[in-house]
Amino acid sequence: MIVYFLASYLFGNVLTAWWIGKYYNIDLRSHRSGNLGARNAGAVIGKAAFLLTFLGDALKGVLVILAGRYLGYPEWAVAMGGLLVICGHLFPFWLKGKGGKGIATFVGIGLTFNILFAIAFSVAFFLVIPFIRSATLSMIFAYCAYIGSVFYFNEVHHAWPILIVILLIMYRHRFDFKQSFDEKKWKHA
Asked: For 9-27, what is each residue's pLDDT tens digit?
């Protein structure tokens, strides 16, 4: 199990945006947000870079969850693999802890770990976004719905590492949340 945990963290260190930037001879860390994620890759390089980065980072989450299940580990350990792949993505050791923000990897983990939690996440996001008109702020509701579904289905004993993942991602997005909220406030002033 220790090997699985270590491999999950190391796998998280494979940042798709970094490799796509390398292909285009662009260091995304020195452009726009400096973030090594799909959004920044798309803003700097284009839609194809966004899509490839999103899919590559989501695939990390999917593969770690599937690997844990294939190896027959208990659900809490599989969820811990999800937490560690996110930690690798957010805090890659080889880039001094400056990686992506984890949304795409979370989507991969969320879809694979428990489809009911993923449905709650998606429904909340798509219900709220037409009213708020901000993907960033809609994510807050989606994460709350995910957390709520974990408690509703009484799965905290299995899914607690995923709840930590959500807190980490929300912490990494705290400035984005504030910026989006301030923009909304300014538009309605």
From this structure: 999 999 999 999 999 999 9
